[in-house]
Amino acid sequence: MAIQLKHLALSEQQAGFCVFTTEHDWVLRIEATALGVFRLRCGLATKLDDSALNTKAQARRDLLLARQEQSSEFIVETLKPKQAWRLSQGNTAVEIHTNPFSLQFFKDEQLVLCTKDVLGFDSSKEQWTLQFARSENIYGLGRTTDRYARYGEIYSDGNSEYVPFAWSPQEWGIFVNSLLPVTHHLGDTADSDYTINIYDKALDIFIYIASPNDIFNQFSATVGRVVQPPLRAMGVWFAQADQQSLVDFTQQAQEMTKAGFAVDTLQLAPPSVFPFQEDKPSMDWDEKRLGDIRTFMTTYLKGHYHLCLPTSLGVPVGTALFADLEDRAWLLLDETGKAAIFHTPYGDVGLLDLTYKDAYKLWSSRHQQLLDNTDAALSLTDTLDIEDGISARQGEEGGFLRALYPLWAEQALIEALSANKTPSEAYIRRHTLSLNSARVTGLYTTADVRHFEDLRALLRQHLTVQASAIVSQMHTIDLPRLDKQLYLRFLALSVFSAGFVIPAESVCLPMMFDKATQKIIKQFWLLRSRLIPYVLGIIEDANRTGLPVQRMMPLAFPQDKTAWAYEDQFLFGPALLVAPILDKGNTVNIYLPRGEAWWDLNTGIRYEGGQILAYQCEVDSIPVFGREGYMLCLGPELSSLAEFNSARVLDEVWLFGMPIHNPVVMRNKIRVMQMQGSSYIKGFEGLRILQSEGLEVKRRGAEVRISRER
Question: How far apart are CA 136 and CA 211, in angstroms?
Fold first, then answer.
């Protein structure tokens, strides 16, 4: 039976929330989670009472939300007795109207978002329906190679490319807080209604009324800030081929370094290097694969290279341990109540039931013990494809278990890697998206790049996933044949990303190209090493702001609608506009966003924003523009990050006009002060400064004064 809210009564009013009763024994609770953030919860009062949650339900809640309390306050006005109320916080407000029911959200007294026609519950389907009127593009909702502005239907249940976060440059955002399936019906045009269906007994949605930058900041505060990766994880990765021995793999890595193409992280291929022992609930190093573990620890795990190690939740079928854990109910179950069997390339396994605290503790604590005092990364090899009919110990199943299980798996590994580290560091490599992806920097994607169209599709995956409030994404550089032009354009784009992987079995290893091409590749390799302080700075900044490494134009410049159409260019951090060439030509049309000036890194020429450039660029470079008022801090040229000197992070600074903003750089201690038309900067000791035209630089001890030429 479909039930719609029509009549409301304000029954409770506190500083941080208001409760409305309805005619169906439900309550509508609206919370001032933070300034500009409204949390809408609706359902039976018992379903909304957090104090009544049992231990398991509290753990699930904490897994999804980092911020539980209300940190803002409402000013409540009655607009019409028993019919309309206004809840204000700062320059934002929501108006609640009854009969007919509607919610209207305002910013600076301008209507930003409103419900339309219905907020209802279908008891036969246990489904809430919330419909919004819209007149603007919607972004987010996960990874795609299709249009950036989302249209059509996007499903959560069984869709590994989806995240439940959407936003609009019209200054609103929505996060659906549920482990159960959700559908988004976005219609066919930008002015179609936007309907969300939540298959849950209680409605729980966060509405963000703010600029896109502030929306990303508040969303990351809601779900949890990103965990910082280890320094060496941000260099060049080298991936072991299937069945390739560790000796052959490291020898190939050394040959890469000897040829001038040093790699920083060695990514070991599946299966797990921590197999379960056959007869007891424990994991240990795979000595058959890794050799003597003491030698492995000294030579590899704590040696020259950073390692990414594969791990798995799979317990091999047919072992005494499998039978034991099946008897204990420590494994996920099939429809018959027996341990569910999953087929993998490495044999049939059962999966540990991480919803059971003892199984969770076993898996997390053992990883911590094995990897303590290292900065190793972990690659979760399981696809975690949990079909309907598979259940956990307490009855979790279907879409609920599909959403919950990866959260537990990733959280267990984050706890294991970040234990005893200040600040916390962890790198969990995963391909599929989960509700945890916004907190982890190890997301990657694979792409079969045979043509330039494939390269464009890869960029679209990067920008759409990061427009879904996920901080970063890596990829693999692999081509099926030697193609100099495509490889160099691919590599140039990769330099201005969160990171890239070179597969050991690739036919396109750098040494396979001619000497002239290798020289260009080395230039890009060195540029990447010099950009590491900036890339790490972007991720550290993301911990505070929620903004991703690569930002599509609607996110970076929401007020400039002309920029939105330039979908192949992006802002790399706050300071650099990158416009990769993604076809066989050497020319690209670049739009420089209005209201700002831009400095060409290749020529040093300054351009006013709001214009389109027909830009020519050979394969030995990539079009990149510095944003006026910002600066780019570069590290020294390194053959590998093993040479990184933490006492001398930077080597050189490029100024883009008069510096106004503090630079984005790892462990940022550089500060810019404005005084009497000049910029005074501390933290530039010993650094080379490349000033842009029209500036003069004078050093005063530990301080640098930058002013305009007279």
Answer: 14
Q: Is the peptide bond before 100 cis (omega within 30 degrees of 0)?
A: yes
Token couple for 470: 């996920």
Structure tokens that stand for 573 in this block = 């951090």
CB 206 within 8 A of CB 37: yes
CA distance 270 to 405: 21
What pLDDT is stored for residue 587 in this prediction? 96
Q: How far apart are CA 656 and CA 402, in angstroms?
A: 48
Distance (Å, whole) CA 362 – CA 343: 23
Can you read off the two tokens belonging to residue 403? Answer: 């959403």
* Angstrom distance (rounded) from CA 200 to CA 400: 10
Quickly state the pLDDT bin for 3 (edges 50, 70, 90): low
Task: Give the list of residues 6+ apart from residue 81 with CB closer than 8 angstroms, or none.
Answer: none
The phi and psi torsions of 675 (rounded to 5 degrees) equal: -155, 120
153: left (phi over 0), alpha (psi -120 to 50) or beta: beta
Show the CA angle centred on residue 107, arms to residues 105 and 112, nearest 5°. Answer: 50
| Nearby residues of 542 by Cβ (< 8 Å), 6 or more positions away | 220, 225, 226, 471, 472, 548, 549
Residue 305 has which token pair?
Answer: 């290279």
Placement of tokens 């429809």 in the chain? 335
Rounded to whole angstroms, the Cα distance separating 600 from 444 reads 30
Taking the C-alpha atoms of residue 621 and residue 493, their distance in angstroms, rounded to an integer, is 10
How crowded is the C-beta side of 634, counted as CA atoms within 13 Å? Answer: 16
Helix (H) or strand (E) holding 464: helix 452-466
d(CA 103, CA 118): 10
Residue 278 three-state SS? coil
User: How many Å is the Cα radius of gyration of the chain?
Assistant: 27
CB atoms within 10 A of CB 370: 20
Q: What is the pLDDT of residue 14?
A: 93
Confidence of residue 158 (pLDDT cuts 50, 70, 90): low
Give 550-575 pLDDT, tens digit per residue: 999 999 999 999 999 999 999 999 99
Nearest to 653 by CA among 625, 686, 679, 675: 686
Percent of the chain that is helix, strand, coil (3-state, to 5) = 25, 30, 45
Residue type, 190: A
**Two structure tokens written together for 668:** 């940022």
626-641 pLDDT, tens digit per residue, is 999 999 999 999 888 8
Mean pLDDT of 353-358: 93
In a 3-state reduction of DSSP, which class is residue 72?
Answer: coil
- Is the backbone of residue 259 left (phi > 0), alpha (psi -120 to 50) or beta? alpha
Residue 1, pLDDT above cutoff 60? no
SS3 label, residue 522? helix
Q: Helix axis angle, 515-545 relative to 484-495, nearest 10°?
A: 30
Distance CA(460)–CA(372), nearest Å, equals 38
pLDDT at 2: 58
Q: To 10 degrees, what angle do helices 357-371 and 398-418 make?
A: 30
Instruction: Give the separation between CA 305 and CA 238, rounded to whole angstroms.
Output: 10
Pairing of β 8-13 and β 17-22: antiparallel
Q: What is the mean pLDDT of the chain?
A: 92
